[in-house]
Design brief:
The complex is a heterodimer of chains A (about 150) and B (about 475).
Chain A lengths: L14 H20 L16 E8 L6 E10 L10 E8 L7 E4 L1 E4 L2 E8 L2 E11 L5 E10 L5
Antiparallel strand pairs in A: 1-2, 2-6, 3-4, 3-7, 5-6, 7-8
Chain B lengths: L31 H6 L3 H22 L8 H20 L3 H4 L4 H10 L14 H16 L6 H21 L4 H6 L1 H10 L4 E5 L2 H5 L5 H4 L27 H5 L5 E5 L15 H19 L4 H12 L5 H32 L6 H8 L3 H20 L3 H11 L19 H27 L6 H27 L3 E2 L9
Antiparallel strand pairs in B: 1-2
Classes of the chains: A mainly beta (about 150), B mainly alpha (about 475).
């Protein structure tokens, strides 16, 4: 069949209608896409006075395989925060890998220990979240680069 | 079957002639067939995918920028790819069938001028090969799968590209000549079990309007200008079924075909662009997987030190240019030349040999993509559950629970995945060898000549298999993505 056959369903109008439509649509999408406003782009932290430090990360530097992370939770005055329920969610920065989850064990005054596995070398985002004894929730994010077994 | 035989000299009546039972026709199944043939049948599927694409864009721009928690990255890079490869294996080109990018295209058609023809020099696969190169290069360079925001922009780009090209040209050049997703789907749908065919060839031969390609008063004809009675291949068929809806004789079927029927027979003119596309897609599969294992970082380091290439994008351009342009060119042109030399007196011109043997790379490439995309789908196919729980919670909707269950992720047990990957690659290799052998057997050629002719192609396939297995055997590694503004 000759391809130049005019389609019977095509209803031709003018480029004057087409171009503004394209640009209006593109403008709104671009404005939306460049706005930079994300729903959950910031760490949820209802306890601004809470400090979270890494006390121990084994192995260091992190290598694919078993790992131990010990965190210290303290308040604004540096006093250890005890009795919190703390959990870890570790994600690769890209989609397509299962997250690593672990619940922390309190191993000392304000010290929380997690043991888990770096299942893949690369960039990890660790989300440490929990609830304090008074019911307030917190969430902190740590970035960790893990190398392969060979370094 | 009790068929009355006509007596000698008696003109047979049509009811007397034995006809083999008709192939199963999906378009005439009780419920599904009616839905597919319904004028708005495709729209139902397109609206579903349009809603998914809208979600990708919305969540990509406004949602959490941690890729595993955002539906844009999870849907695009885990589910879309897993869905496409499984659909092609089990059914056919189901993504193009429900393609959301063609919805605004229909609007563009209605708004457009009468539309010019796509330039003749571009009526081939070179533009879509360039598009594939661009998208795979951008994917590695900008780590698209680690960025919901960029993923959303990719979806927007597809909508805009489809809309603009449809508005400017009379045919559907975006699908046939430009779309990288379409090029991928077209190539691997040649291995799919379903194909469009006429129910009765003689009905087409007496048809005046040729509505399947020209369109009827209410339904457009084939967007990629395929004429049903001449369709021998799934290449360029988007499964849109406009041909079936436009046919006034209800003479278009969507039927199963014998496994590898298309790949083991010559089904079209030999073309360098087609041969290159098929081979390049196989090597894209390798380079895409290579970008996720540790040796790629060693190569980057070496290139930076030895060649002074500081730019990540430039280094990737060189790696991809070598693996996906230079190497396929060497395989296609070199393989065809070698085939001719080895084949001897009965051999054909290099172009015909490239066209004859390049389709063997379809099962090989399919196996590699299945191993790669299947891996991510198996590992994270169910991750969409907590992602949607989180999405709903962000919008104050509690239907899916109060806490996302981030532990939900795997579709298959971890220990199954590597053996399945190996199986996919090896199956691809052996099917590719079978396709080569079947294509080598032709009148006028002895088995020895045919065997010599396929030798260079078989060797390349063997090397590709070894390299693929080595890559899949390496632990994955993905670094250098923290600059994406995670959180």
């Amino acid at each position: 069949m000759h391809p130049d056959t005019q389609r019977s369903v095509r209803a031709g109008t003018t480029a004057g209608q087409l171009v503004p439509t394209c640009f209006t649509l593109l403008f709104f999408v671009a404005a939306f896409g460049c706005s930079g406003g994300t729903r959950r782009s910031v760490t949820i932290d209802r306890t601004a006075d809470l400090k979270l430090e890494i006390v121990e990360l084994q192995p260091d530097p992190p290598v694919r395989g078993a790992a131990v992370l010990v965190l210290r939770l303290s308040d604004a005055e540096g006093r250890p925060v005890t009795g919190a329920s703390v959990s870890l969610k570790a994600d690769m920065t890209h989609a397509g890998m299962a997250p690593v989850l672990d619940d922390a064990e309190e191993v000392g005054e304000g010290l929380y220990r997690m043991s888990f596995e770096w299942t893949m070398a690369g960039d990890w985002v660790l989300t440490v979240s929990g609830t304090l004894e008074d019911g307030r929730g917190f969430e902190h994010v740590l970035l960790v680069s893990v190398v392969g077994q060979g370094g | 079957m009790d068929v009355p035989l006509p007596l000698t000299g008696e003109k047979p009546r049509s009811g007397d002639i034995y006809r083999p039972p008709a192939n199963l026709d999906l378009l005439h199944l009780p419920v599904l067939g009616r839905l597919l043939r319904w004028r708005w049948g495709r729209l139902v599927f397109q609206l579903f995918f349009f809603a998914v694409a809208a979600l990708v864009i919305y969540d990509g721009f406004t949602g959490p920028q941690l890729a595993p928690e955002n539906s844009a990255t999870v849907l695009a890079w885990v589910h879309y790819r897993g869905y496409v490869i499984l659909a092609l294996l089990l059914v056919g080109n189901l993504f193009c069938f429900g393609c959301p990018f063609t919805l605004p295209r229909t609007l563009a058609r209605r708004l457009s001028l009468s539309g010019g023809r796509w330039p003749r020099p571009l009526r081939n696969k070179w533009v879509s090969i360039a598009g594939l190169f661009l998208i795979f290069w951008l994917y590695e360079w900008l780590d698209l799968w680690a960025s919901p925001w960029l993923t959303a922009w990719v979806a927007v780009g597809y909508f805009v590209g489809s809309f603009v090209l449809e508005a400017l040209f009379a045919e559907s050049p975006f699908c046939k000549y430009v779309c990288p997703l379409g090029a991928f789907n077209f190539v691997y749908s040649t291995a799919s079990p379903l194909q469009i065919r006429p129910r009765e060839a003689e009905v087409c031969s007496t048809c005046v309007g040729k509505e399947c390609v020209n369109g009827s008063a209410t339904v457009p004809g084939c967007g990629t200008e395929l004429f049903v009675p001449t369709i021998r291949s799934n290449m360029d068929c988007t499964f849109c079924l406009d041909c079936a809806r436009a046919c006034p004789y209800d003479n278009v079927a969507l039927s199963p075909r014998a496994p590898l029927e298309e790949l083991t027979h010559d089904r079209g003119p030999a073309r360098w662009d087609m041969a290159f596309l098929v081979v390049a897609l196989t090597l894209f599969g390798i380079s895409n997987a290579f970008g996720m294992v540790s040796p790629v970082y060693a190569l980057h380091t070496w290139m930076a030190e030895a060649l002074g290439l500081e730019s990540d994008g430039l280094r990737l351009l060189l790696i991809f240019g070598t693996l996906n342009i230079a190497l396929p060119a060497l395989v296609v042109f070199g393989g065809a030349r070698m085939s001719k030399v080895l084949g001897g007196r009965s051999s054909q011109p290099p172009l015909l040999l490239a066209g004859r043997y390049a389709p063997a790379f379809v099962p090989m490439g399919f196996g590699i993509w299945l191993a790669h995309y299947g891996f991510h789908f198996s590992i994270a196919g169910l991750a969409i559950v907590p992602v949607m729980q989180s999405f709903m919670l962000d919008h104050g909707i509690l239907w899916l629970g109060l806490h996302p269950d981030w532990g939900t992720s795997r579709v298959l047990p971890q220990e199954w995945i590597f053996p399945l990957q190996i199986g996919a690659v090896l199956a691809g290799f052996f099917v590719a060898l079978y396709v080569l052998l079947r294509r080598a057997i032709r009148p006028g050629t002895t088995p020895a000549e045919g065997f010599r002719e396929i030798l260079p192609w078989a060797l390349v396939l063997l090397v590709i298999t070894i390299v693929s297995l080595s890559i899949f055997n390496l632990p994955m590694e993905m670094r250098g993505t923290f600059n994406l503004g995670v959180r």
